[in-house]
Specification:
The chain has 610 residues and is α+β, with helices and mostly antiparallel strands. The protein is built from 13 helices and 31 strands. The strands form eight sheets. Strands 14, 15, 16, 18 and 19 form a five-stranded antiparallel beta sheet that branches. A five-stranded antiparallel beta sheet has the order 22-21-20-26-25, covered by helices on one side.
Length: 610
């Protein structure tokens, strides 16, 4: 304790006693006054005894003391009280004698709970997650009769999994302990179950059963592999709170933006949350704008080896904002330097003309811009591709003349995915399914990835062209039914189709009915079409009757049969390989489906046909 401002005023201090033991908590506040004459620096002036504080056996009591007014020095102590497992407590407290005794032992990879209880004695056993943020969450509770041996799977162990046991008697004593806090398997399971959830309005949260130390940072993933390059702004590398909703400080999303979650400098999770809804990684370059004093600004292009400065004769980014040309940088990467030198002025011109998209604006810290590179790559390699095509054509003619039959190179089967616009949550699930199918030997087309072409051609022309190309190549058209799509089809079949103005102009599904419905009504659909719906959102029997002329699959529960149908004759090995692929697609689809059910405005489930 420290002296107050006045020599004559007594020294005042407050002491807080608190404990928390699931499911009860308690705290008290004490006020202590010491005469100023007795308070000498570095010397004890006495002690305070408070014998009215009741705490549960095995509880963790915290003692927190500070002066009034407060100074910098505070006293913080944590005391773990003994529970009924201690021999001294067991002999001195009557209620502990009837408590079931619990031992934890190994059972191969699993864990066995052995409860030493006399026969016909009834007791309760509770397994719960002891979470630091919020209330503890019960996981399993049962009233049992002793003795008992209970086996826990090693996959269910997490560091905060605690056990509480008590006899079924009035005012019985509960004993709690958490034996897996330092178990390596529990810590591995914790990171295995942790996941990053993307919420509406650029919100997100890191979900995990227990509290853990984690750092989150945004990174930029270039196509073609390579490490994801961390971006210090806009998200500084700092600890995050589990199960708390946070917000990405972005102006716009991009499929190449990913999230890295690290623990003690070890990467645990890396996800690209917008790749499913915005399509695969794009061949874009990320420009990092640095802002200095006097409104001086500089730009560099993020490359695999670092940020390469952009050399240019352009003097300004905007009126009054001068562009500083940075040094050439590391000469050990001449190819990267030549690329920046070749495209520097063109990229800056794209930035001036509005062809680049701003992802983040940090005021004085800087900004992030993304510019497409496809047009430069196509322009540079046009002659090379033409020469290669001519060479391939000559070689093909030569082989065709030499052999009667030439086996065509293996290509993935074309798949056109048609769906109704039933909200952002449903579209995220459609995008997740399309992205997962695209990683298989399938060539997937979906309107979510072709919004620019859809707007330019119109929904009807786009669907008609994609359908014709898919069927000419021997592909398959997948009709993904939702509650909204089913309702629209029933209205269409009853002759009461709404005018186009009543639907979303960017929704391609109403236009697709003009193209695909005649094939179903005239018996041409089998072999060319497949119908699918999501588990829990629409049962298969709710699909309108004309469309049940082709196979109908509920996803992800019927994913193996669905993939076998999509691959057609190419599914020559329907064994373990197909099962692994079905598991991969289901695992990628499930988080998006869970988010679809939780998102506001998501389509409600349909229980059956009307």
């Amino acid at each position: 304790m420290e002296l107050g401002e006045s020599e004559n005023a007594p020294l005042q201090a407050q002491v807080v006693l608190s404990f928390q033991s699931y499911p009860t908590t308690r705290c008290v506040l004490l006020e202590v006054q010491v005469p100023a004459a007795l308070a000498q620096p570095g010397q004890s002036v006495g002690s305070a005894v408070f014998d009215c504080f009741e705490a549960a056996l095995g509880a963790e009591v915290r003692i927190w003391s500070y002066t009034q007014p407060r100074f910098q020095k505070e006293l913080n102590l944590t005391q773990q009280l003994p529970d009924c497992r201690g021999l001294q407590v067991r002999d001195s407290i009557q209620k502990c004698r009837a408590l079931p005794w619990l031992n934890v032992s190994a059972d191969g990879d699993d864990v066995r709970l052995v409860l030493d209880v006399s026969e016909e004695q009834r007791f309760s056993l509770l397994l719960y997650w002891n979470q630091a943020q919020g209330a503890s969450k019960p996981r399993w509770h049962s009233n049992l009769t002793g003795p008992q041996n209970i086996t826990l799977s090693h996959t269910d162990l997490v560091p905060c999994l605690c056990i509480q046991v008590w006899p079924l008697e009035p005012d019985s004593v509960r004993t709690s302990f958490c034996p897996f806090r330092k178990d390596p398997r529990a810590h591995r399971n914790l990171w295995r179950t942790a996941r990053l959830s993307l919420l509406p309005l650029r919100n997100w949260k890191l979900e995990a059963p227990c509290s853990l130390q984690a750092e989150v940072v945004l990174c930029w993933q270039a196509p073609g592999g390579g490490p994801c390059q961390p971006l210090a702004p806009p998200m500084l590398r700092e600890n995050v709170t589990m199960n708390k909703i946070l917000k990405f400080p972005l102006l716009k999303e991009h499929p190449n933006l990913c999230v890295q979650v690290s623990n003690w400098e070890k990467l645990q999770i890396q996800e690209c949350p917008w790749a499913d809804s915005l399509g695969p990684l794009k061949n874009d370059v990320l420009l990092v704008e640095t802002r200095g004093p006097q409104d001086n600004r500089s730009l560099c292009a993020l490359e695999p080896h670092g940020c390469t400065p952009l050399p240019s004769r352009v003097s300004t980014l905007q009126p009054g904002a001068h562009l500083k040309v940075l040094p050439l940088g590391d000469s050990s990467h001449p190819l990267a330097w030549q690329r920046a030198a070749r495209l520097g002025e063109q990229l800056l011109q794209d930035l001036h003309s509005g062809q680049c998209v701003q992802l983040w604006d940090g005021d004085d810290l800087g900004a992030l811009w993304t510019c497409p590179l496809d047009k430069y790559i196509h322009r540079r390699w046009a002659l090379v591709w033409l020469a290669c095509l001519l060479l391939a054509a000559v070689l093909f003619v030569f082989l065709f003349l030499k052999k009667d039959r030439v086996k065509a190179p293996t290509r993935g089967r074309a798949v056109l995915l048609l769906h109704s616009a039933d909200g952002a949550g449903f579209e995220r699930a459609v995008g997740a399914l399309a992205s997962a199918l695209g990683r298989l030997p399938l060539r997937v087309a979906v309107d979510l990835w072709s919004r620019q072409e859809l707007s330019a051609q119109g929904p009807l022309a786009w669907v008609h062209g994609q359908r014709r190309q898919t069927l000419q190549e021997g592909g398959v058209v997948v009709l993904l039914f939702s509650p909204g799509a089913a309702a629209l089809c029933r209205e269409w079949l009853q002759g009461g189709a709404a005018a186009p103005g009543n639907h979303d102009p960017h929704d391609a599904f109403p236009a697709s009915l003009n193209c695909v419905l005649p094939d179903f009504l005239q018996g041409r659909a089998p072999g060319c079409y497949v119908v699918a719906c999501f588990d829990g959102l629409l049962p298969p029997d709710a699909v309108p009757a004309p469309f049940r002329a082709v196979p109908v699959y509920s996803l992800p529960s019927q994913m193996p049969d669905f993939l076998r149908c999509l691959q057609g004759r190419r599914a020559s090995r329907p064994g373990r390989l197909l099962a692994d692929r079905a598991e991969q697609v289901s695992r990628a689809l499930q988080p998006a489906l869970d988010s679809c059910f939780l998102s506001p405005g998501a389509p409600g489930p349909v229980t059956g046909p009307e």
